[in-house]
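STRUCTURE:
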C-alpha cells in the first residue's frame, strides 16, 4: 500500500483540493495523510494565545474570522446541495466547539484540542468532496491509532496494532484519508507530533 502526504499548501484552497483528486484516484491502494489548510494551524495558535491571556473578546474575533474563511471555502468546494449542507454542519460543529473555550478554563490540554481542529476539518472536507465525486474512500480517524508513550514519543506497537485494526474494518477499500500531526498521549488525551508532524505521521504510517 502506498502512503502519500500532502501539506497545507496542497489543501490550501478549494482549487488545490480538487486538483488532489487526480493525484490520488488511480486505483492503487493508498493511505493519504493530510495537513490542515494553509494558515489554519497558525490561526489556531493565535486563538489559543488569546485564550491563555483570557482575552476572550479577541479570541472570539479570531474564531469568527477563521469560520468565515471556511464558509467561503465550502461554497467554492462543493456543487451539490447535500455536500454544501454537510460542509456547513461540519464547520458549525467545529467552530461551536472552539467558541466553547471562550466560556471555560483554558489549559495546555485544551490548546492541543484546539490545534487538532485544522486536520480534522481538512480531512472531513476532502472526504465529502470525494463522496460528491463518487470516489469510494474511507476517512480513518488518526486519533484511533496514533498514540504517544509516556516519553511523548510515538508508541509504535500501539500504532501498528490499531492501524491494522482500523484497516480491517473496511475490507475491499483501497483509498483511505487520515489526519497528519494529531495523536493521543498515553492518557488518551488529544496531543500532537509538533510542527511538521504531518510528515512524521506519514513516515510512521
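SEQUENCE:
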Amino acid at each position: 500500500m502506498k502512503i502519500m502526504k500532502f501539506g497545507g499548501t496542497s489543501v490550501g484552497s478549494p482549487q488545490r483540493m480538487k486538483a488532489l483528486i487526480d493525484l490520488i484516484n488511480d486505483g492503487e491502494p493508498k493511505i493519504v495523510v493530510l495537513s490542515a489548510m494553509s494558515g489554519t494551524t497558525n490561526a489556531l495558535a493565535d486563538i489559543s494565545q488569546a485564550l491563555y491571556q483570557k482575552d476572550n473578546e479577541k479570541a472570539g474575533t479570531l474564531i469568527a474570522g477563521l469560520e468565515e474563511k471556511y464558509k467561503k471555502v465550502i461554497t467554492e468546494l462543493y456543487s451539490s446541495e447535500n455536500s454544501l449542507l454537510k460542509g456547513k454542519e461540519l464547520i458549525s460543529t467545529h467552530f461551536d466547539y472552539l467558541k466553547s473555550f471562550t466560556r471555560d478554563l483554558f489549559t495546555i490540554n485544551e490548546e492541543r484540542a484546539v490545534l487538532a481542529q485544522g486536520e480534522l476539518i481538512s480531512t472531513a472536507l476532502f472526504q465529502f468532496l470525494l463522496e460528491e465525486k463518487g470516489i469510494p474512500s474511507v476517512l480513518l480517524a488518526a486519533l484511533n491509532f496514533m498514540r504517544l508513550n509516556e516519553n511523548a514519543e510515538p508508541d509504535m506497537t500501539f500504532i501498528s496494532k490499531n492501524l491494522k485494526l482500523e484497516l480491517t474494518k473496511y475490507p475491499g477499500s483501497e483509498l483511505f484519508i487520515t489526519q497528519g500531526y494529531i495523536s493521543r498521549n498515553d492518557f488518551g488525551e488529544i496531543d500532537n507530533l509538533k510542527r511538521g508532524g504531518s510528515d512524521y505521521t506519514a513516515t510512521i504510517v
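REMARK: The longest helix spans residues 56-77.
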